């Protein structure tokens, strides 16, 4: 672009009666409304989508983030590229009373506006210098304006109350950001924290529950059996009662287990599974005590009161007994 061309454009602009170049603060304010607000919403939606990406139960939420992001992006494109060709304004420029025009004062078309938006990458790539160029360039142009042959000039605001429209957009953007963050917490972080809490609880409580389920003494038999039944779900209780009845018919003696090792296999806020290695003793006469070792898989379910109940108990290694003194 030669100096003569610039002079010709100045003359053409004067002939069209163009207003003075827009101030840099007005341009920055319009850009914040038109672009930065949308980018903030897209960032919130992007973080939300990324946080639920690997969650198997959050596919619907992930697609919700994607669709919402596509809608926001489409709105930004429409506001920056298509709305100016219809009304002469973007929302932000209407609020601050500025317009993008060609050098001769005529309104730019969609293609020129698209070129200008893409050329803003050059403004950014030059360590942001292009965005500051209007502060000393005599016609207030960025690098993008120079390439697209456009200018940003002051203009009379439209009669419509655009400030109210801008306020509504800002409120909506804030609500979307809050919703995106809240849904991410409810959909991912809260379940994760609940699963971590369940893991800790079952690590501590599981071995003790299995001990109480399998241990009993002949002097407090019915009390011990009732306590064990209270530690199970309705589905497993019938099976446990049947096992207790078999033990009674075989002749009751003391049977006491201690968990010596355990490992949580899985844990969710609603159910869990773990392996428990047990040692114990059977009999009440010190001369006839039998020492027991066994390994079981215990499956737990949290009931409506938040308490863990045994839903299934599978013996993986049958009890081995050694008589004391042998």
TrEMBL record:
It is found in: Cell membrane. It is a multi-pass membrane protein. Keywords: Cell membrane, Membrane, Transmembrane, Transmembrane helix. It holds the Pfam family RDD. One of its GO terms (cellular component) is plasma membrane. It comes from the Bacteria. The keyword Nucleus does not apply. InterPro entries: Pra-immunoreactive (IPR051791), RDD (IPR010432). This is RDD family protein.
């Amino acid at each position: 672009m030669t100096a003569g061309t610039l002079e010709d454009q100045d003359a053409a602009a004067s002939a069209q009666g163009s207003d003075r170049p827009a101030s840099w603060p007005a341009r920055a304010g319009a850009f914040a409304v038109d672009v930065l607000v949308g980018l903030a919403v897209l960032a919130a939606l992007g973080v939300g989508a990324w946080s639920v990406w690997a969650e198997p139960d959050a596919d619907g939420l992930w697609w919700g983030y994607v669709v919402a992001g596509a809608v926001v992006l489409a709105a930004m494109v429409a506001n920056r590229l298509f709305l100016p060709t219809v009304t002469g304004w973007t929302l932000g420029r209407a609020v601050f009373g500025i317009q993008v025009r060609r050098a001769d004062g005529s309104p730019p078309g969609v293609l020129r506006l698209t070129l200008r938006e893409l050329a803003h990458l050059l403004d950014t790539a030059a360590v942001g210098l292009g965005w500051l160029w209007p502060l000393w360039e005599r016609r207030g142009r960025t690098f993008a304006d120079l390439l697209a042959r456009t200018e940003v000039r002051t203009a009379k605001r439209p009669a419509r109350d655009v400030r109210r429209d801008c306020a509504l957009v800002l409120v909506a953007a804030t609500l979307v950001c809050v919703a995106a963050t809240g849904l991410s917490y409810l959909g991912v972080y809260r379940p994760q924290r609940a699963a971590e809490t369940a893991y800790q609880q079952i690590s501590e409580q599981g071995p003790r529950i299995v001990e109480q389920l399998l241990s009993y003494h002949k002097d407090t038999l019915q009390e011990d059996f009732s306590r064990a039944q209270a530690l199970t779900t309705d589905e497993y209780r019938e099976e446990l009662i049947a096992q207790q009845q078999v033990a009674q018919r075989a002749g009751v003696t003391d049977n006491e287990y201690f968990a010596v090792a355990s490992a949580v296999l899985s844990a969710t806020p609603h159910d869990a599974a773990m392996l428990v290695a047990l040692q114990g003793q059977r009999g009440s006469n010190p001369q006839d005590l039998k020492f027991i070792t066994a390994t079981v898989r215990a499956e737990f379910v949290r009931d409506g009161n938040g308490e863990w109940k045994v839903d299934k108990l599978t013996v993986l290694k049958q009890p081995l007994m050694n008589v004391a003194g042998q």
